[in-house]
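Collaboration report, partner site 2.

Our partner group contributed sequences for two proteins of shared interest, and the home lab folded both. The records are reproduced in the order in which they were received, starting with the first partner submission.
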Amino acid sequence: MKVGIIQQHNTEDIEYNINRLCEKTAALAAEGAELIVLQELHDGLYFCQTESVDQFDLAVDFPSERTERYAALARTNQIVLVTSLFERRAPGLYHNTSIVFEKDGSIAGKYRKMHIPDDPAYYEKFYFTPGDLGFEPISTSVGRLGVLVCWDQWYPEAARLMALAGAEMLIYPTAIGWESSDSADEKARQLEAWITVQRGHAVANGLPVITVNRTGYEADPSGSTGGITFWGNSFVSGPQGELIYRAPADEEVCKIVEVDLRRSEQVRRWWPFLRDRRIEAYGDILKRFRD
C-alpha cells in the first residue's frame, strides 16, 4: 500500500496551513497514495506551550465546516485520510481527536487521545480530557488502522491493545520536539528514544508503524521558555522494526512510502509473540505499581 505522509512547519495562519495541507494531499493522491496521514493538531501552531482559556476558541465542533472540509478532501482525492483536530465536544469539554475519513468522505471512525502529558511547554492536561473511546482499530477500505496520538506512542499497552483488537498497522500523528534549555546530548537521547520505543511496538506486535511529526520552530507566546523546535523525523517502520523511511529533522516532507501489509503475517509466523503470551500471569498489569 502507498502511504502518504506530510511533515509540515505550521504558522499562526490556520487557513494558510490548511490550504497547504490540501495541496500536498492532492499531490500525493495524484502519485497514487491510498492512505495519507497528517501530523498532530495540524491546522495551527502547537498552542499547548501556555495555559490560556482563550486558546479553547481554536477547538471545532464535530461535525463542523472544518470536518466537512477534510471529508471533501478525502472524497475529492479518493484517499483514506487520518486527521488530528482539537475537538469541542461540549461547553468546557474538549479532546485531542483523530478523525479518519473514508474515500467517499464518510467518517470511518475516530480516536480520542488517551494519554495526556503535562510537562513544561506541553500543558495538554489544561486543554484535553482523556479519551473515552478505548483502543479500538478503525476499519477502512485500506485496512484496520490502530490510530493513536503522540504521547500514546510511549505506551506499549496502547500498541498491544490495538494489535489484540486486530489493527493491521499503528499510526501516530505527533507534535514533539526539543525545548530550548535541553543540552545537545539530551536532545539526541530524547529523539533516539522516541524512535526506538515505536520501533519496539512494531517488533512486539509484528505490525508496521507510521509516525508523522511536525517540524520547525514555534515560539512560546508567554516568553517563559525559548519555545519548541519540533524535531521532524517522521518515519515508517516495518513489522520487524526495520526503518523503511525516516524524514530529516528540519525540512518539510511530502512523501509516499510503500508498506507491505502481507509481511506482518509472515513475521508473526516467525516470531509468534501473541501465541506465547502468558495471559493468565499478567493480572498485575492493571495495578498502578506492584508494592
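Second partner submission, folded after the first:
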Amino acid sequence: MTSFFDEIAQNRLKSLVLMALFSMFFIAILYLFVLFMGGGGPTSISIAVFLVAIYAIIIFYTGDKLVLTVSRAKEADRKQYRDLYGIIEGLASAIQVPMPKVYIINDPSPNAFATGRSRKVSSVAVTTGLLNIMDRRELSGVLAHEMSHIQDNDIQFMTIAVVFAGAIGIMAAFIRNMLFFGMGGNNRNGGIILLIALVIGLLAPFFALLIRLAISRRREYMADANGARLTRDPHSLSSALKKLLMYEKDPKSVPLQHVNEVTANLFFANPFKAGNIANIFSTHPPLEERIKKLEAMY
C-alpha cells in the first residue's frame, strides 16, 4: 500500500528528472544544428534560441484552441449539462482555481481532456461516450484527474515537451534535406557532418519521442494520484478505468475519431485502439497498471 502523497512525490520527481534530461538533450541538439549550419558562435546560437522561443510562444497561445478545434469540441450548455458543471465547479473550488470552460465532444468513445494556457485560462472537455457509461461517482473521479492536470500546470509542462520534440523534429528534417541536396556544413566543421546527420537526422527525433512519451506517462500517474487525493476515493477512479478497460476490450468498440499523435497525450486514456503500439510508444500507462496503483492507495 502507498499513500496519495508518496505516489505524487515519486511521479513528480521522475517527471522532473525526465524533463531535465529532455532539456539537456534539446540544448545539445540545438548546438549541433547551429554548428552544422556553419555557425557555433554566440550570435548564431542566440538566433536559434530566439526562433525556438517564437515557436514556443505561438504554441503556448494557440495550442488550446487548436486542440479544441481538432477534437470538434463544442462549449457545453449549462442547463443541459447541469450535473457536469456542478462537479467541475466543486472540484475547481476545492483546488482553488478559476472555473474552466466546459466542452462536449460528440463521440461514443469514452474519454476526456484538459487544456489551456494556465490555471486561470483552462478548459475541460468530455465525450458523450464518457457521460453515457459513467455514474456520478466515477465521473467525479475522471474529472478530478483532469482538474489535477490544471492544478499541477501539466498543460504548460507538456506544452514545453511538445515544443522541444517539435523543434527537434524540425531541425532533423532540415538537416536531412540539407544532406540530401549536398548542402550544409563547411570545411571547418566537415569532420562532424556524419555525426550530426546521424544524431539529428535519424536518432534525435526518435529519442525525443521516447522522452516525451515517458514524461506523458509519468504525468498521468501523478494526475491519477492527485485525483484520488482530491476525491479521497481512489476506487471511484479505478472503477472508471475498469469501465474503460471493458470498452477497450470490446471488439465492437471504436477509437476516438478526431485525434492525432500530437493531441493524444492530453486525453484521460489512450484514445487509440489498444494493442496497436507497444507500451514504450504509448502516451499513457496501461489501464491495468493504473488500476493496480489506484487500488493500492490509501
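Feedback sent to the partner group on the second submission included the following. The two ends are 7 Å apart (CA to CA). The chain has nine helices and four strands.
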